[in-house]
Amino acid sequence: MSVKEDLVKIVGKSKVSEAPEDLDKYAKDESPVHPVRPRCVVRPGSADEVQKLVNWANETLTPLVPVSSGPPHFRGDTVPSTGGAVIVDISGMKRIMRIDSEHRIAMVEPGVTFGELIPELAKEGLRLNMPLLPRATKSVVGSLLEREPVIMPQYHWDLADPLACTEVIYGTGDMFRTGSAAGPGDLQQQWEVGAAQNEAAGPVQADFYRLIQGAQGTMGIVTWATVRCERMPSIEEPFLVGSSKLDDLLEFVRWILRRRLVDDCLLLNNTDLAHILATEWPRGYESLKNSLPPWILFFSISGVKYFPEEELNYQKEAVANIAKSLKIELLKAIGKVSAFELLKVLHKPSEEPYWKLRDKGSCYDIFFLTVHDKLPELVSVMNGIAESYEYPASNMGIYIQPVVQGVSCHCEFNLFFEPGNPKEEDKIRAISEAAFEALANRGAFFSRPYGPWADMAYRRDSVTTISLRKIKDIYDPNKIMNPGKLCF
Amino acid sequence: MALKNRDAYKALEDVLGPDYISEEPAILDTYAFQWGAELFTSTPFLPRSGAVTLPGGTEDVQAIVKICNKYNVRYKAFSTGWGFYSGLGLDDTAIQIDLRRMNRIIEINEKSMYAVVEPYVISSQLQAELMKRGLNCNIIGAGCNTSALPMAAHQGLGHTAVSTSYGDRNVLAVEWVLPDGELLKLGTLGSGAGWFCGDGPGPSLRGILRGPQSVMGGLGVFTKAATKIYPWYGPPRQEVEGVSPNYKLKEVPKNFSIHYPIFATWGKFLEAALEISESKIAMLVDRISPPMLAQALTASNDEGAELFARINEETRGRPGFVVILTSESDAELAYKEKVLAHIVKEKEGEYLAFIEQDDVKREYLWMELRVTMPLREVFRSTGRFLGSIGDSALFQTSVRMMIEAMEIKKEYQEKKLMRADDGTDCIWGVTIESGHTGHAEQVVFVHPTPEAWKALAEFSERCEDLALDKHYTVPITVWGDRGHDKFGPYLCNYHNWLRKFKKSFDPRGVSEPAMYISAKE
Asked: Backbone phi, then psi, for A468, in 5-degree steps?
């Protein structure tokens, strides 16, 4: 039997494609990784079909590349690293399986996007701690598995949040449920006793979910996940703070996070904020950007259930006191940007076209984790590198997201470029490579290394590399799951 | 009894020097004398290990572990030690690694809110340093004299988990001597970026570091770890008065308050606990049962019985829990008090008047903040305790399971195999992370007789069966081959994966597996 015949037997004729135009969509993405055309695309509709596919791949030693979000893709993790791969596109698995308002938890399949989940949660009085303006096609489960930073650091207790439990088909073909979803009992039996698949840890003496998070599909394929949600506030008030000095804002952020006073809290440079809010290009963008200071902090305060106005007021007073002591001015608008307008924008996915593509058509992100103290130096280093490759630093977007309740920060540089322009693409590739070493040498931690960063990251830490390969041998002994990624 | 493998002993002595290794029976017995040993040996002593080693740092630990691998000698690390967990499985073919010389606070990073500690830094030591800086840490329920390392404890849940989470979630970067002696530096530490993150690059090896339960010595030795720290709104130094054990704060710190709301039913109790936790007003939501409360606040069993009767007179069996509110301003405290009072009223509860007394507040507040009460709370009445101990999934399901466990407990109390004169409800529990998760356990006090220990083991197993039959959460009495082989088949065969981790990372099986899992097929 041919590969196609095998796959048709598992998922049905309409879910298998070898059409060149279909394969080409998965052969490359917006990142500088080398294009590799897959052999076939298959679109399973259930965990059972996924399991059969993984079993088949083990028998035939066929590489599988899982894809949960729709295009465009940006990081190379869904582009095959080797020939003969089968793309397992699970973006069609779109069930919102359960929303449990009492326990603040939602269970979704991997094809569910932010745009689909947010309104359903709102009906139950819940909201997501979501990443910054995900694209319309972005999978919620994909985002959770990639440890994408989220915009409400107060509720981000652990870097793995807000992922709770998962169901995964490991590379061995075994089905497993992580956290409290593992049992005792099946899901229905757990619900009957009042359980909610809300505890990510476990079962028992391991945190199995941490081994599939950040794995870029190299350990298995997740067929559903639960996500921790927060109550929708009754009242919210957003603020903006502008500054020419990043350090001033960081000190203020440190204190408002330490006191757990704010919900949304993120920093953008004027380039990124203008990219997010501009509606007319290029004039509207330029005019908006020119109205802004170099750095803008956005944060919001909320009152939720009990005496929400009083809750809001005591927090406002506390924030105002911190601001006063640091000589920070809290504003409702800066330049042409209104805090309320931004609040509305940030709690939804990006409008189309995706905000990172509006200017030049494509964007390459360089991101890492660091601590507040190191940020100014790292920003300065990155500006220098960009300039040295004749990429004007002022054209580079910068997004700083405090994470883990303020313990560390996600720092992201957005390099906007023209796709298909070989000169620009070469420049971006060169900047990316130069940036990794320069930033890592100054304390930037590439916790999520995509594409060429992976080799560079693992070269710095041989014992971690060896240890991860042991885990890979356990979960995917035949190396069928997205081979060539990370250190596998 | 001495270490059987004399070549190994000699090699260890050569590395550590004669001052830092011992096989003196009297010394070894101080490690073997452990609470709960009766469950396994019918005596207060576990079997003696062959020797105890006292490494001074990571290099010593690595050297010990490599020698153990070379000579096939099992080892088990011990930080501050607490109960049979510390030495179960050891005998004269194995050694204990006592980490007491590794007692330094390496770093307190105020800006990034983490502290880096060695295994023998105790929580009160760390907390005292943190409070000077307006910061605080999670202190595990076992008390402030235990290790501050976030994966040293069995579970690591503390009374303030609603606002300070617990060990599994507080771990950042870790320095870890793997079972074969290799040194793994988790997360940022391995990449030379400091201590602020334990995840990555790529998948997080925190996945095998621990779960809701730690690996309890079964997967190498943790030599340093960074732990998240939390804000503290009290004074930098606590002024206390009185004589041990009746210390009291000289005054309730400004903008602190403590209450013990009680409710007509367990249903209302659960609703209130969850609403209070979710509203983010509380620093602490701690279900201390009346018997434990009475024991904690008294200096003898007689006094405890008297106080228990007095508290019971007021509660008339109505369940309640402790709430501590802290704030930085009068307005904040006023808001929090108002919300608490509103929820208590809404759930038809009332504050326990006994706790509202100023001297009781000053005494109990200090106990809760410093976690000084466990010895009196659980050990004094009979000298021994255990129970059915839930997971960290949901407060509601954990408490419901423990209410059912009370019915099982009653049978043993009627047979006088468990202490009965302080009531049946001895549920301890906490909500975690604003009530997103939670934990409960049913504490049992037994007199140290063989029959009572047998009853206790039987009770524990019956509660495990209850969890399996009713699909409740996994009790944390599930460890070792027995527990994992019992529960694994009902939980996606997780035990098979755990065994694979053990086999892969500890190919010679020398990191003592009794409290974790063996690599047996």
From this structure: -65, -35
Distance from CA of A438 to the nearest CA of B (A): 13
CB contact under 8 A, A371 and B165: no
Q: Which CATH number fits domain B240-376: 3.30.565.10, 3.40.50.720, 3.30.70.3450, 3.40.50.300?
A: 3.30.70.3450
Nearest Cβ partner of A214 from B202, B473, B501?
B202
Which residues lie below 8 Å from residue B142, measured CB to CB, with a gap of 6+? B82, B153, B374
Do both A399 and A280 map to the same domain? no
User: In chain A, pLDDT over 70 holds for what percent of residues?
Assistant: 100
pLDDT of B69 higher than 80: yes
Provide the ipTM. 0.97
User: Angle of helix A308-325 relative to helix B330-346, nearest 10 degrees?
Assistant: 160
How many folded domains does chain A comprise? 4
State which residue of chain A sits closest to B507, comparing Cα positions. Answer: A470
Residue pair A367/A396 in contact (Cβ under 8 Å)? The answer is: no
What residues in A contact B335, CB-CB < 8 Å?
307, 310-311, 314
CB-CB contact of B408 with B457 (8 Å) = no
In this structure, what token pair is assigned to residue B420? 């009965």
User: Does residue A309 belong to the interface with chain B, where contact is any CB pair within 8 Å?
Assistant: no
- Residue B376's alpha-carbon distances to B39, B298, B421, B426, B440, in angstroms, are 22, 8, 16, 14, 19
Residue B409 backbone phi and psi in degrees, to 5: -60, -40
Contact A210 B204 (CB under 8 A): yes
> Phi, psi at residue B441, to the nearest 5°?
-145, 155
A345/chain B closest Cα distance in angstroms: 26
Flag if B203 and A215 touch (Cβ within 8 Å): yes
Is it the case that residue A174 has pLDDT exceeding 90? yes
pLDDT band for A1, please (50, 70, 90 cuts): confident
Give the span between the Cα atoms of B325 and B365, in whole angstroms.
11
pLDDT band at B1; cut points 50, 70, 90: low
Query: What would the two tokens of residue A465 be?
Result: 């590399």
A209 touches B: beta carbon within 8 Å: yes
More confident residue, B372 or B321: B321
SS3 A240: strand
Choose the mutation target among B436, B437, B499 for the interface with A, i.e. most A CBs under 10 Å: B436
Residue listed under structure tokens 């706790």: B355
Question: Residue B243: its pLDDT value, please?
Answer: 87
* Percent of residues, chain B, with pLDDT higher than 90: 87
Asked if B457 and B384 touch (Cβ cutoff 8 Å), the reply is: no
Per CATH, domain B6-98 is 3.30.200.20 = no
For B396-414, what is each residue's pLDDT tens digit? Answer: 999 999 999 999 999 999 9
Per-residue confidence (pLDDT) for residue A325, from 0 to 100: 97
Using the Cβ of A312 and the Cβ atoms of chain B, whether some distance falls under 8 Å is answered with no
CA distance linking residue A470 with residue A464, whole number of Å: 10
A128 and A193 belong to one structural domain: yes
Domain that holds residue A15: 3-89
Q: How far apart are CA B278 and CA B403, in angstroms?
A: 23
Same domain, A185 and A264: no
A66 and chain B in contact, CB less than 8 A: no
The reply to whether A254 falls in a domain is yes
Give the C-alpha separation, A118 to A125, whole Å: 10
